[in-house]
From TrEMBL:
The keyword Membrane applies. Keywords: ATP-binding, Kinase, Membrane, Nucleotide-binding, Phosphoprotein, Transferase, Transmembrane, Transmembrane helix. The chain crosses the membrane at residues 12-37, 278-298. It comes from Rhizobium leucaenae. Pfam families: HWE_HK (PF07536). Gene3D superfamilies: Histidine kinase-like ATPase, C-terminal domain. The keyword Kinase applies. SMART domains: HWE_HK. Residues 358-439 form the Signal transduction histidine kinase HWE region domain. The lineage of its organism: Bacteria, Pseudomonadati, Pseudomonadota, Alphaproteobacteria, Hyphomicrobiales. InterPro entries: HATPase_C_sf, Sig_transdc_His_kinase_HWE. This is histidine kinase.
Length: 553
């Protein structure tokens, strides 16, 4: 007794069960995602925060690099080598062409020899950040200073200082800019609402900033956070110091400054959380709609299956059924398949009767050919052993024809293939055979008859003709010509390179096959010329007895 794993139920019940089996795990998975969402999104937020800090660092780095490049260009001025301050001042103003960047020429003690912010005639004092000058002179490379109050303008500025090697004009060139100008590059447009950004110098003071934190140049950054920002880039999070917030930082490559961005986590995740809540509400609503739709579809599918089952039942009783039309495409395809199958079964039964008749016919032909062959050989052989060898040899050639016909389902075989199959065992090398002619498909009867003829010709050639010598050669050629009855085909077998040929005095079964049988089988005539240089055998055959009609070219 067969046992089912599932209870018996209607198609509607199973469709609803399938819908629930699909939907409920999805909803459970969504719930699990919600549990993991905060942690996963925080990881994403950390990565994005670091990338925002790195983007700000690259922006500030480009500004500092542009200033450094300008200083290097100016340091190579010939006016500095000649200590021509006036000309250098004019040249520098021409190069800068801006109201936000200014160049200073400084001595070792910090005394300014020129400042393009002021006329050359104005008395100048010392730089307001002597420590930055000494650091650049000691290191011998370009450095950015900490933010400081300019000694003349009394505003927060910063310098980029380039030491001059052995210049008579001064010890260093510096480019200065107001910190407020740099703040224009520090924007929070790409950040979430409530987030701030800032650039911090090496002493932990704000160089420039923007955002709701309202940090101004010179303000100290949180001293509890700065010691923790030790990597080249990263994130900082501490619920005690920055409650519900996240900070990302990045060291500006090649400089002593850092770029930082920070703000509340909730504002960065608010839109995504809202999206997920909408997904849950929408998922539940769609599930209910789906269940209602499944119930309606189940009724339609049940009717369709019943109709198909009725068709299958009628087909099982042997009826030819017509296809039904339903609203289900696959059901229509099944109905069409059942209808076609009922017609095909009827046609198959007719075809089986035809095949059986054809098989009987072909078997009779083969038996008749074998009987004629054995009778002929029996009259021309003088011993049982000779008779057995002759019969076996001819049957082997006939078997080759039947084998190749069977592989092609008795639909015909190409002429070249028939030649290759029957002569392959007789040739000592491929150079002994030359085939000329446009290939075509032979009829099944022609395959058997021509195969028998080729086998006899090859057998005689191995015994007495060209194939008995290594240098012997067989040339097979066929050409088309118009005859009296219809289109004729001239098929020639030419031997050369063998021993001298003599006309035989006694004819046997081979002559019968190659002459009388060949002429009768192909409704034509045969010419045989025993030339001393080699046998010439010519078959003038009616082409229609050889070539399949549908394959004729």
């Amino acid at each position: 007794m067969n046992k089912t794993r599932f209870p018996k139920a209607s198609i509607g019940a199973y469709l609803i069960a399938i819908a629930l089996a699909i939907a409920l795990p999805i909803l459970a998975f969504v719930a699990l995602l919600l549990v993991q969402l905060e942690n996963n999104e925080r990881d994403v937020l950390k990565r994005d925060t670091v990338q925002d800090a790195q983007a700000l660092a690259r922006t500030i780095d480009r500004q500092l690099q542009d200033m450094a490049t300008t200083l290097r260009l100016l340091s190579s001025s010939p006016e500095l080598e000649r200590n021509d301050i006036v000309t250098f001042f004019d040249r520098t103003e021409t190069v800068l062409r801006t109201d936000s960047l200014f160049v200073l020429l400084l001595d070792k003690d910090g005394q300014m020899r020129l400042n393009t912010r002021w006329p050359l005639s104005k008395p100048l004092g010392k730089t307001g950040n002597l420590a930055a000058l000494q650091s650049a002179l000691n290191s011998g490379r370009i450095e950015a200073s900490d933010v400081f109050v300019g000694s003349i303008v009394r505003r927060w500025v910063y310098n980029v200082t380039l030491p001059l090697d052995h210049s008579p004009a001064g010890a260093a060139l510096a480019m200065t800019q107001d910190a407020d100008e740099l703040a224009k590059l520090v924007t929070t447009d790409a950040l979430a609402p409530g987030w701030s950004a800032a650039v911090i110098d090496s002493s932990g003071h704000i160089v420039a900033g923007s955002g709701p934190a309202n940090l101004s140049p010179g303000d100290p950054f949180n001293k509890d956070i700065l010691p923790k920002l030790i990597a080249s880039s990263g994130v900082y999070q501490d619920e005690k110091i920055l409650p519900h917030s996240l900070l990302g930082y990045a060291q500006i490559p090649g400089w002593s400054w850092k770029a930082v961005v920070w703000g509340p986590v909730a504002s960065a995740q608010a839109s995504l959380m809202s999206t997920w809540r909408f997904l849950i509400y929408g998922g539940v609503t769609l599930l209910l709609i789906a269940l209602i739709a499944v119930y309606a579809l189940a009724r339609q599918v049940r009717t369709t299956i019943q109709d198909i089952a009725d068709m299958a039942d009628r087909m099982g009783r042997g009826e030819i059924v017509s296809p039904i039309e339903t609203s289900v495409i696959e059901a229509n395809q099944m109905a069409m398949a059942l209808s076609n199958a009922s017609f095909d079964r009827s046609e198959t039964e007719d075809r089986l009767h035809f095949v059986m008749h054809e098989l009987v016919h072909r078997t009779k032909n083969l038996l008749a050919l074998a009987q004629a062959m054995t009778r002929q050989l029996a009259r021309q052989t003088d011993s049982v052993d000779t008779f057995q060898r002759a019969v076996a040899d001819r049957l082997e050639g006939l078997a080759r024809s039947i084998e190749v016909l069977t592989s092609e389902q008795w639909s015909g075989v190409s002429l070249r293939r028939v030649i290759d199959i029957h002569l392959a065992t007789f040739l000592q090398g491929p150079q002994q055979l030359d085939i000329k002619g446009r290939d075509f498909l032979l009829k099944p009867e022609a395959v058997q008859n021509l195969g028998l003829i080729l086998h006899e010709l090859a057998t005689n050639s191995v015994k007495y003709g060209a194939l008995s010598a290594p240098e012997g050669k067989i040339t097979i050629e066929w050409t088309a010509a118009d005859g009296e009855i219809g289109q004729m085909l001239r098929f020639t077998w030419t031997e050369s390179g063998g021993p001298t040929v003599k006309t035989p005095t006694i004819t046997g079964f081979g002559t019968t096959v190659t002459k009388a049988h060949a002429a009768a089988a192909f409704s034509g005539s045969v010419e045989i010329d025993f030339r001393p240089t080699g046998l010439l055998w010519v078959l003038n055959a009616l082409r229609s007895t050889m070539e399949r009609e549908r394959e004729r070219t």
